[in-house]
Amino acid sequence: MGTWIAPSVVERELYEAKLRNDWPSYFDTLAGAWLFIPLARGYADAHPTSVLLEPAYFPQARARCYVAYTAGMLPAPTADVVFKRQSLAWFAAGFEPGDPPFLAVNPGSPCEAFLPASPADRAVWNAHWDRAPRYGLEQNKVHALHVGGPLRGPAAFGLACGAHLSVRNGLFWNALGYHGEGYGKEREKLKEHWGITTREEWLVTVEQLLTADMVSAVWEFALRIRAALAKEFAGPVDIEHWRHATEATLRANAERAAEPRITPEGVTVARPRSTAEIEGEVAGVQRVIGRIARYEQRFRADGILGEGRFVRSVEAWDYGRASQMARWGLGARLCTLQEAEDAVVRAGRVCRLSYRSWEDLSAGFILGRCLQFDEEEYGHWYTDMAATHQALMSDPGSPWLNIPWE
Fold first, then answer.
1. Which of 110, 177, 319, 404 has its Cβ near the most Cβ atoms within 10 Å?
2. Are 251 and 358 members of one domain?
């Protein structure tokens, strides 16, 4: 490939097929790839469900062409230009009489191609689309940008802390200049799943995630009690010891809250709690301890936790999502690239303070996700993460195998 390094596996496959003059393989790769169309942001905001194809003249083809880029060829996000994701089948159906005679794929790069767009040619595009095994990169597999994304350093570390969701969704784990599924789709996902539609809402959410303010305080309380016991007694803590110590702590806290205190501001009035409230709190935390213990047992069986190991904290559930939220905000143009990078680096920093290894971080992230969504069903909320954990712990290209924790 000379001195050119393909940004990702997609561009490498296109380039190698082009070198071999193997156009069926070129079309196979193209049919399975996300294709992106550049749009003015103002137009995209005013017409969220439509696309304005702007042809450009290319001397290589001696003609005006519509343009499409694969994900690895997208530039860093800017405020004024956005990209909409489409497919080869969409282009096959989109050409009309009088349209340009070619589709330019990744123009200006070694893997570029100017594809004739006659009805017969577009029938070939459709045939390749019909037999494509998937649309987009394979899920639950590690994908990286070899050009255009950090592979070392603080930003790469922070991105790796959120790699569960990147791997699960078939996205480049290290795409800091993030476009995701395209501008409109990224905005839609933030609105649907997070209720975020403005920059201000994004800023608040990122700060909440970076300070672990969204994860349940009850879960974290229970885990910290056990961690303190393990440190004090220099070894594993059995569940009954954990339960008794947690109950004793809750009752002691309730007693202290019922006593008046003298502070620099004066006497703080006691706020006694009802017996029913205290008993309900104790019972609730005991249920949480049971759930955590059962999940950890399953984690050990599936290789997520080593024998005798336990989850230290579930703050990783917030920190990992903070790393991703930084990218999602950039993809939706709710922040700048520098702001996204700053948030990613902060996510990596707080993860290093709270955890000791990638395995430690992963178990905390997965437990937090399961406690929030899975309800001990061990359904896709768990199995998806178990698969991503295995991929990140075994794939030679995984950041967890290439970026030291310390």
1. 319
2. no
Residues 83 and 65 in one domain: yes
The reply to whether 43 and 121 lie within a common domain is yes
Residue 149 lies in a domain: no
114: CB partners within 8 A, 6+ apart: 58, 60, 61, 63, 65, 102, 103, 104, 105, 107
Whether residue 58 sits in one domain with residue 33: yes
d(CA 267, CA 405): 48
Pair of tokens at residue 337: 């690239």
Q: Is residue 323 part of a domain?
A: yes
> How confident is the model over 64-79, as pLDDT tens digits?
999 999 999 999 999 9
Integer Cα distance of 142 and 145 in angstroms: 10
Q: Which residue has the tokens 């409230």?
A: 277
pLDDT of residue 294: 96
What is the C-alpha separation between 170 and 248, in angstroms, rounded? 46
Element (DSSP H or E) covering residue 282: helix 275-301
- Cβ neighbors of 190 (< 8 A, separation 6 or more) are 196, 197, 202, 328, 329, 332, 334
Backbone angles phi, psi at 102, to 5 degrees: -135, 155
Can you give the pTM of this predicted structure?
A: 0.92
The vertex-132 CA angle with 131 and 134, nearest 5°, equals 140
pLDDT along the chain (406 residues), means of 10: 86 96 97 97 93 92 95 96 97 92 96 96 97 95 96 98 97 97 97 98 98 96 94 86 92 74 62 78 92 96 93 97 98 98 98 96 98 94 97 97 94
Cβ-contact 245, 229 below 8 angstroms: yes
Report the C-alpha gap between 85 and 6 in whole angstroms. 20
Task: Count the domains in the chain.
Answer: 3
The answer to whether residue 406 is domain-embedded is no
Q: Tell whether the torsion through CA atoms of 326, 327, 328 and 329 is positive or negative.
A: positive
With tokens 């790796």, the residue in question is: 160
Bridge partners for 114 per DSSP:
104
Is there a single domain that holds both residue 44 and residue 192? no
In 3D, which of 252, 76, 221, 85 has the Cα closest to residue 149?
Answer: 76
Domain housing 51? 9-131
CB 132 within 8 A of CB 32: yes
Say if residue 159 is in the same domain as residue 293. Answer: no
